[in-house]
Amino acid sequence: MRCHRYLATAVLFALAATTSAHADPAATAPKSGPILDARLRYESVEDDAFTKSADATTLRLRAGYRTSVHSGWSALVAVENTSHLSRDHFNSTANGHTTYPTIADPDNTALDVAWVQYAPSDHWRTTLGRQALLYDNQRFFGNVGWRQNEQTFDALDTEYRFGNGVALRYSYINRVQRVFGEDNPTPALARFMMDAHLLHAAVPVGQGTLNGYAYFIDNHTLPLTSHRDLGLRYTIKHDANDAIGWLANAEYATQHRYGDGSQLIDADYALLEGGLVWRGNTFKAGWEKLGGNGLYAFQTPFATLHAFDGWADRFLTTPVNGLQDGYLSWSRPFGHVTATVVGHDFNSDHGSTHYGREWDSARPMSVRMSARDGCKSNTPIDIGNASDGRRLADSGVDRNTISLHPSGP
Fold it and tell me: Among 66, 286, 345, 362, who pairs with 384 as Cys (CB 3.0-4.6 Å)?
């Protein structure tokens, strides 16, 4: 059984885009002004598990406004619409076309972001409203920018940075707007209603930073998935200019039931990663484990999952036997874009199942766009090609992926 997936994304236009609607509110505030941008995306999937192939051409439009900062106060509001431009020969998760493979970019019109922020100094900021929440490397909480309808949170988020480099952060989350669309007929795909408390501390240790976190998630939409995560993450990087630099990351976390969560929830997470940096090239080797025992495995449902465990997206939900991912990667920036090659070897954590291997690569190019009035601009575009796919021992599926997407506005 074979599966082929092809994806393409491009910025159609960006007008008066003084800021991104999904910029992290924790970042330095840009100038005030209107927000107007569009993203055109193409994706196709061929999968022998289905009698039909899928293809989707979708356009995302965003419009909004961000105020300037007055006495520490600022605000942002934006609405978005995603529509398919051709025949909907794909399962968007909302259109009922289940005879096609899934391409999770449904038609959707929704309030994208709407928040008010108070930042009286460079040390302290508080944001209230619908917003993106990005924690660390987005392994636990992110905005899923890969999809047209990005993930946002109705939340209170506050952070204080001390002069000695220590940072404390707390977020309360009431609701999660998922990537499957505000109007999705399946409530659990459209949104999660929840009471979640996220606590995070960053402390300089040596040349690196030690991050400690405690996430308490009471999911009212799916109560049995309620859980708490406790973990530590240490990151360090040594830059050496013309010499050889290096980096290292290590992380460990536990996951247990919380609130009405299932009694089965009991798993751990581990990461070891090291790398060398030389003349703009970064070489990494790593090992990541999402523990499993045959009944339950470590899950990160609010993460930017596409960034982890292969771009073919076969492990968005961790198998009950868990997952161990050994990987090697190379990357190098070229102007505004970065070329990347990653190789993965996937095995179960429980038992001795070899899920398979995957190669992913992203190659940059610059596309020159011309307007009728003769104005021209260079828009950096990343092209990615995940060749060789993955053979899964439990399903016999090979998946090949090609992707095209912009490096940023």
Answer: 362
